Amino acid sequence: MTTQQGSLAPLTTPAFSTGTLYAALGVAGFSFSFPGTVWALDGFGPWSAIGVRGVLAAVIALAALLLTRAPLPSRGDWPALAVVAGGCAVGFPLLTTLALQTSSTAHSAVVIGALPMTTAALSALITRRSPSKVFWAAAGLGAATVVAFTLTQNHGRPTTADLYLFGALLVCAAGYAFGGRLSARMPGWRVIAWGVVLAAPVNLAVCLWALPHEPVHLTAKALTGMAYIAAISQFGGFVVWYKGMGLIGVARASQLQLAQPLLTLVWAVLLLGEHVTAAVPLTAAVVLTCIVITQRARTA
Prior knowledge:
Elements: H1 14-30, H2 33-40, H3 46-67, H4 78-99, H5 105-108, H6 110-127, H7 133-153, H8 160-182, H9 188-210, H10 220-248, H11 250-255, H12 260-272, H13 279-296
Helix pairs in contact: 1-10, 2-10, 3-4, 3-9, 3-10, 4-8, 4-9, 6-7, 6-8, 7-13, 8-10, 9-10
């Protein structure tokens, strides 16, 4: 099994170093998605925000595909691209935006905390291969730590927003798993570009319905947030993320996302004024330890 197909590369290989860097850049980009969405909601209604971000991202993606004269995907790649479109370009933005209407950014970060384990599990089912027991133990501990931390910050009370977040977790993990596999034989940026373009008709329909029915206030905060979630959260972040997964494998790359909720919490405190307890440093230490272990673990 090659590195690109999902195996865990030795730490000394160029693919590992480069792939880890790309995946880490993706995580950094995604970490601001929730705060960016909150900013966008300052001037857009929830359905308008969902549709506009998707349409803007599709314009960027289509321009990139046309400028590079990218070939059409093969017939066998379209089903996986449909999963990417449904999970990453429609489902996740839709469900998390609805959740953020009533849930804080810190609480919503719980979905990201469980995402690496879900992605690794789905990838294992798809490829019929499983990482080692050490890998699963460290990943499970890291995910449990992040989930427990984020739930504790919000008193662990399940709400309607939690149901949205749980659905977002499942559809995004599927998009990551299928998109990561495609990235082994197709440039990662093309994977998300085609996924975003494939989702464009749905997002355009949402725009046409929502904009006349929801008030729009073009504040600086709203425009900044919309620009970010369209250009980075919906497209640019995935370009480097899928590139990283294609180099070091879906399971290993997904574990880097264990740090994403903590980064999101930092943005929530600095930019949104949300309160975070002193448990943050301890959680960060546990999560970083788990990431190191999963990066060094080998497949069974």
